[in-house]
Amino acid sequence: MFKEQLQKIVDKTEGGLAVIVMDMNGIALDTYAKDGAPFDINTVSIELSTVLGAAKRASEMLEAGKTSEIAVSTEKLTTIVRTLNETYFLAFAMKPDGNVGKGRYLMRMAAPEMAKEL
Amino acid sequence: MFKEQLQKIVDKTEGGLAVIVMDMNGIALDTYAKDGAPFDINTVSIELSTVLGAAKRASEMLEAGKTSEIAVSTEKLTTIVRTLNETYFLAFAMKPDGNVGKGRYLMRMAAPEMAKEL
């Protein structure tokens, strides 16, 4: 469904591993992963949907507006999560030394077009 | 205690508003805020400590190693949280159009020195 956009995000970001479109209940809509990605993007995204939920609750408490993006960096993985609309989000996993700025940019550019089709 | 390091992070980042050193229980150790910052960095950080907790649990589940950093972007505020050690973290709030890359860089540079004193 979104294969072309997803592939572009992963392949154009140095250190990019895998990307997924998922709903807030953890159901994957479409995904693209490089061969040999060391993590299953499905599992990563399901875990991160709880982090996104926590961020949304924090934003509501702070009256800081809607949460557009979260990024989580660990020793082995950096993941960026961008909300597409109320139901769906885009999650992108990369190596810890991957180009986070480039990844954020490519996701930001792709999001409005993807959101239109959801 | 860390006034000089904190001031440097805020003042050298375009759009920087306020920064705080806080423990995981929400007790602030030191803080620096620009005049007219539209949010109380104490309140923001207490809320974000729950997001950091969720990220840490997700990283453990995924065996992805220690969580070093999370960033949350909302309509009105972008906040970067960097862990300093098991007990303390550094949280930096900036305008949504602030220079996230510069902020992350300055926090990463300051963290090891600050961690030594904790």
Q: How would you describe this protein?
A:
- 2 copies of one chain form a homodimer.
- Chain A has 118 residues and is of the alpha+beta class.
- Helix content of chain A is 42%, strand content 30%.
- A 5-stranded antiparallel sheet of chain A has the order 2-1-5-4-3, sandwiched between helices.
- In chain A, helix 1 runs antiparallel to helix 3.
- Chain A is globular, with a radius of gyration of 13 Å.
- Chain A starts with a helix and ends with a helix.
- The interface between A and B is medium-sized, with 33 and 33 residues.
Using the alpha-carbon principal axes, give the shape of chain A.
globular
Q: Roughly how much helix do the residues of chain A carry, as a percent range?
A: 40-55%
Counting copies of identical and different chains, the oligomeric state is homodimer
The amount of beta strand of chain A, in percent, is: 25-35%
Mean pLDDT of chain A: 93
Computed over alpha carbons, the radius of gyration of chain A is 13 Å
The largest chain-to-chain contact, stated as pair and per-chain residue counts, equals: A-B, 33 and 33 residues
Output the strand order for the largest sheet of chain A.
2-1-5-4-3
Distance between the termini of chain A: 10 Å
Tell me the number of helical segments of chain A per DSSP (H or I, 4 or more residues long). Answer: 3
The topology string of helices and strands of chain A comes to HEEHEEEH
- Helical/strand content category of chain A: alpha+beta
> Would you report the number of β strands of chain A?
5
Low-confidence stretches of chain A: none
Major beta sheet summary of chain A: 5 strands, antiparallel
